Amino acid sequence: MTLIAVLGSGRVGGGLAQALTRAGHEVSVANRSPGSASDAVRTAHVVINATPGAGSLERLTALRQELRGKILVDVSNATVDGPDGLPADLLYPGSSLAEQLQEALPDTRVVKTLNTMLYTVMTAPAALTQPPTAFLSGADQEAKQVVRGLLADVGWPQEWVTDLGGIETARATEAAVLFVPHVIRSSGFAPFAISVTR
Questions:
Q1: What is the fold, at CATH topology level, of the domain defined by 3-187?
Q2: What distance in Å separates the CA atoms of residue 167 and residue 135, rounded to the nearest whole number?
Q3: Residue 195: helix, strand or coil by DSSP?
Q4: Is the pTM higher than 0.85?
Q5: Rounded CA gap, 135 and 114, in Å?
Q6: Which residues have CB under 8 Å from 103's CB, separation 6+?
Q7: Does residue 118 contact residue 193 with C-beta atoms inside 8 Å?
C-alpha cells in the first residue's frame, strides 16, 4: 500500500485515483481550494500530476518544498490548443514538461508515463483490440520501478511497459500528443494509444 496524492480531479486524475484506490492504495485527490494540494503532497509518498499541462510547471514549482524527495509521476502534456480546444502545438518545443519539472524540482524524482493514450486507456489497457504501450522516462531507476508497480496495479502487464531511459526521452512521448487531434478527427473520440509492436 502506497500513500498517493493525485493533483487534478478531472477525467484523468479522477480515473487514476479510483483505479489506485481499488488496487488497495491510500489515495488523496487535491481540489482547487487553497492548501489542498500542499496538504495532499506533504503526506504522500508518490504524487501524480494530472493537472492541465499548460499550468503544471507553475503549480508544481509552488510545491517545491512539499515535493522534496517524493516521486512525481507526470501524466500531463503541455500543449498550445487550437480553436477547437485540441492540441495544436507543444508548449515546450525542443524540451518537454517532464524535463522542465525535473529542472525546476531537482530534489524530486520525476517519472513520465501514460501520456500517449486517451485517458480511458490509462486504467483499462486491455480494453483495446491490440496491446498498447506505456512508456517510462526518468533518471531514477528506483522511482521507475515504483511506477512500474503502480502501472501493474491498474492493469498494465510488464511486457506492455517500455523504459525509454532518462527524462529527456519524455520529449518524444510528449510530442506524440500531436497525433491526437488528427486521430480524433479521422476516427472519432474512441479509446486509442500509441503502441510499439515487434
A1: Rossmann fold (3.40.50)
A2: 11
A3: coil
A4: yes
A5: 7
A6: none
A7: yes
